[in-house]
């Protein structure tokens, strides 16, 4: 077994453990951790359990989690974990949420697992091996016409500079809304990216790049034959400002729309 295959097995087991925790907690507490930003005690329970599991299985690899921050050295390799992506959905009983886990090596992810605990699907990928949903290979959209495209857009910005950031988002929504088949705002980057990999969405525009939100989905999309770029169209890395995932046939149209929204002239 290759190292990536062994690490993928560990990632798969980790998100399975997370699903058990999520589905075994019929009640939970909700608290605010920032401006209109929520956390539940299930988020922290999942992260604590997966941190302990990953530290035991891969002590040589660091961990970055949304709720507890960074631990371990890892020498440039680290797990990026979002214990529940889509917490606001989860807290309201909306089943669109996921557990996202990626192994990041340098600037890119090499192993990914995203599980959707209420939809019964686990997406997995290892670099160079393809992307899978419950063990079945998936492929990104081959659409080439914007009028055929269903596009997910990430949440509006909150906190500092939100008004300025959202001005560009509104321009982008107006542009795409006039030309795309449908626009969706699902409230979870993990599902946005997994569904681009699965061909259910033709593009996902996440105008931020928290590694715990995005790095698993980035690998899934790439292994499914899609493209993932930064806001300016350059190749996406862990340090990118945005995460733009798209079937290859619509890459130029999506980047052009972003340029218009942000007033970029090339």
Produce a short descriptive summary.
The protein has 266 residues and is α+β, with helices and mostly antiparallel strands. It is built from 7 helices and 15 strands.
Describe the structure.
InterPro entries: Inositol_monoP_metal-BS, Inositol_monophosphatase-like. Keywords: Hydrolase, Magnesium, Metal-binding. This is Inositol monophosphatase family protein. It is a single chain. The strands form three sheets. The protein has an eight-stranded mixed sheet, sandwiched between helices. With 266 residues, the chain is of the alpha+beta class. The protein is globular, with a radius of gyration of 18 Å.
Largest sheet: 8 strands, mixed
Q: Could you say which overall geometry the principal axes of the C-alpha atoms support?
A: globular
Radius of gyration: 18 Å
Helix content: 25-40%
Order of helices and strands: HEEHEEEHEEEEEEHEHEHEEH
Strand content: 25-35%
State the end-to-end CA separation. Answer: 47 Å
Extended strand count: 15
Keywords: Hydrolase, Magnesium, Metal-binding
Protein name: Inositol monophosphatase family protein
Organism: Amycolatopsis plumensis
InterPro entries: Inositol_monoP_metal-BS, Inositol_monophosphatase-like
Task: Give the helix/strand layout.
Elements: H1 3-23, E1 30-34, E2 37-40, H2 41-57, E3 62-65, E4 69-71, E5 77-85, H3 87-91, E6 98-105, E7 108-116, E8 121-126, E9 131-133, E10 136-137, E11 150-153, H4 162-177, E12 182-184, H5 189-197, E13 203-206, H6 211-223, E14 227-229, E15 243-246, H7 251-261
Parallel strand pairs: 3-5, 11-12, 11-13
Antiparallel strand pairs: 1-2, 3-4, 5-6, 6-7, 7-8, 8-9, 9-10, 13-15, 14-15
Helix pairs in contact: 1-2, 4-7, 5-6
């Amino acid at each position: 077994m290759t190292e990536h295959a062994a690490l993928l097995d560990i990632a798969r087991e980790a998100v399975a453990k997370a699903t058990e925790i999520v589905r075994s907690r019929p009640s939970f507490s909700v608290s605010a951790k920032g401006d209109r930003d929520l956390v539940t005690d299930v988020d922290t329970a999942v992260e604590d359990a997966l941190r302990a599991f990953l530290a035991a299985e891969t002590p040589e690899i660091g961990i970055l989690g949304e709720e507890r921050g960074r631990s371990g050295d890892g020498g440039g390799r680290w797990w990026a974990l979002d214990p529940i992506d889509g917490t606001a959905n989860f807290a309201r009983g909306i089943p669109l949420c996921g557990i996202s886990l990626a192994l990041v090596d340098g600037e890119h992810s090499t192993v990914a697992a995203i599980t959707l605990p209420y939809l019964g699907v686990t997406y997995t990928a290892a670099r160079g091996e393809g992307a899978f949903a419950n063990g079945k290979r998936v492929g990104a959209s081959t659409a080439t016409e914007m009028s055929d495209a269903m596009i997910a857009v990430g949440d509006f910005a909150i906190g500092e500079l939100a008004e300025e950031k959202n001005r560009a988002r509104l321009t982008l929504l107006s542009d795409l809304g006039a030309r795309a088949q449908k626009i969706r705002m699902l409230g979870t980057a993990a599902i946005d990216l997994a569904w681009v990999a699965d061909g259910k969405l033709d593009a996902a525009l996440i105008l931020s790049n928290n590694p715990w939100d995005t790095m698993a989905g980035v690998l899934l999309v790439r292994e499914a034959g899609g493209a993932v770029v930064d806001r300016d169209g350059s190749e996406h890395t862990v340090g990118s400002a945005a995460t733009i995932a798209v079937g290859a046939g619509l890459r130029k149209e999506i980047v052009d729309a972003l340029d218009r929204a942000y007033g970029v002239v090339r």
